[in-house]
Amino acid sequence: MDTTAYLFDLLKIILPALIVAGAIFLLIQQYLEKEQQRRVIELRLENSKATLPIRLQAYERIILFLERISPNNILVRLSSAGQTAADYHRQLQHEIRAEYEHNLSQQLYVSPEAWNLVKEAKENVLTMVNRAYHGLQNPTQLRGTELAKRILEGMMTDAADPTDQALSSVKREAAGLF
């Protein structure tokens, strides 16, 4: 009986200690998990403070790219005076591709959908330029102004700027950052 009483007394001491230790363990574990979550949130906040200006700059550059390759703007910016239609065609193609290559790295900061629309806009502008060029009779003899005129006529018949959809998408996405 002495052993039973001893075990019973020992159990009365150990059982509450185990319950308290388990409760303390659970509280510490919850505290550590909350602290880890707080640190992750803090890191994300710091990261977003650093990347937000970079992302905004990327959106600005993409919008500038789309505006620069828009047929209305590129035809004004690149003078066709004194060039044949063939030379002007090559110059337009080169300028569009160079602008695109200059802005390739911006795809890191935009969604894949927006970047696909940007690529599609570039291809649509190139297609418009090529279609107008191939629609000319004897382009090596005609002036570059004739090609510019054909491109603008093509825009009027299509009734849409080939960069509009991409511009709208990029602007919408950039507005979503705020």
Sum this structure up briefly.
The protein is mainly alpha-helical and 178 residues long.
Q: What is the topology?
A:
Elements: H1 2-69, H2 71-77, H3 85-102, H4 112-134, H5 144-158, H6 164-175
Helix pairs in contact: 1-6, 3-4, 3-5, 4-5, 4-6
Describe this structure in words.
Keywords: Membrane, Transmembrane, Transmembrane helix. InterPro entries: DUF7935. This is LemA family protein. The chain crosses the membrane at residues 6-28. It holds the Pfam family DUF7935. The chain is mainly α. It has a domain at 54-175. 80% of the residues lie in helices and 0% in strands. It is built from six helices and no strands. Helix 1 (2-69) packs antiparallel against helix 6 (164-175), helix 3 (85-102) crosses helix 5 (144-158) and helix 4 runs antiparallel to helix 6. The protein is rod-shaped. It starts with a helix and ends with a helix. The model has no long low-confidence stretch (mean pLDDT 90).
Strand content is: under 5%
Give the H and E element order.
Answer: HHHHHH
Percent helix among the residues?
Answer: over 70%
* Total DSSP E strands: 0
Residue ranges: pLDDT <50 for 5 or more in a row? none
Per DSSP, the total helix count is: 6
Organism: Hymenobacter saemangeumensis
InterPro entries: DUF7935
Keywords: Membrane, Transmembrane, Transmembrane helix
Pfam family, one: DUF7935
